[in-house]
Amino acid sequence: MSRKPHILIVEDEEAIRSGLIDVLHYHGYTTDAAADGRQGLEMALSGKYDLILLDVMLPGMDGFEICNRIRVQDREQPIIMLTAKSQDEDIIQGLQLGADDYVSKPFSVAQLVLRIQAVLRRSRIGIETDNTIMLCDDHHIDIRNMSGRLGGREVVFTRREVEILQYLSMNTERPVSRDELLNKLWGYAKNLDLETRTVDIHIAKIRRKIEADPAHPRFLVTVRGAGYRLMVA
Ligand code: CA
Predict the structure, then answer these.
(1) CA distances for 214 relative to 57, 154, 161, 202, angstroms
(2) In this structure, are 94 and 137 located in the same domain?
(3) Residue 129, phi then psi, degrees to nearest 5
(4) Distance, CA 57 to ligand 1 centroid (Å)?
(5) CATH code of the domain in which 226 resides
(6) Are residues 113 and 138 in the same domain?
């Protein structure tokens, strides 16, 4: 049997923190916890966690700053942000800074555990393969290095972004729906009625990196009512 997944909880509210610890232990995970942003960042940067549950409002340093600093060092570390339900901007900002997903507080234990399991299952497709996506003559995306050269600009992608690009590039003959991306890349079961804007926000992030005019995408287009499609050379 493989070792238990090790999860870091960064949450300053004692009741939520201890509740999370109990729930995660019950579901077979081991945990460490930090109640302060700076301590949380220090622990997060140790790189020994399979997943980080990261609250937004924290003393010392907020969750956005922590997420940002983790991503500078590690583009693959799985992170789920714990956001306040009413704070749409929190959800968007967290995902823009590179979190894999979010859970809105107050959350149900069942939903939280499903999302943790999904993020830990990670991608079904390997990105280790030597693979270049050619969008057009001078727009190349290097899957393995999670980077791209786009008309003379260098960009870097998070693991999740490059997984989306790779999946779309494997299916360029058709649009791919949000549900399919959630199922294939996030590992969400089909027909699991999880409200999430995760996919849309990731798509918007990718567009800002690969499109000259993100509002009028040329490569990563929306097919109304059907999903997203990658237009390649
Ligand atoms: Ca808090």
Answers:
(1) 30, 17, 15, 13
(2) no
(3) -65, 150
(4) 4
(5) 1.10.10.10
(6) no
Task: Please tell me whether residues 188 and 137 are part of one structural domain.
Answer: yes
Same domain, 119 and 173: no
Centre of ligand 1 to C-alpha 84, Å, is 9
Q: In which domain, by residue range, is 18 found?
A: 6-124
Distance 121 CA to ligand 1 centre (A): 27
- Ligand 1: distance of its center to the CA of 16 in Å? 9
Cis previous bond, 5, omega within 30: no
* 63 lies in the same domain as 151: no
What's the CA gap between 169 and 151, in Å, rounded?
Answer: 19
pTM of the model: 0.77
Does 39 map to a domain?
yes
**How far, in Å, CA of 67 to CA of 56, rounded?**
9
Residue 1 falls inside a structural domain: no
Q: How far, in Å, is the centroid of ligand 1 from the Cα of 143?
A: 36
pLDDT tens-digit profile of 110-120?
889 988 988 88
Q: How far is the CA of 129 from the centre of ligand 1 (A)?
A: 40
- One-character DSSP codes across 143-184: TTTTEEEETTEEEE--HHHHHHHHHHHTTTTS-B-HHHHIII
Q: Does 200 share its domain with 118?
A: no
Q: What is the pLDDT of residues 146-165, one digit of tens each?
A: 899 998 899 999 888 999 99
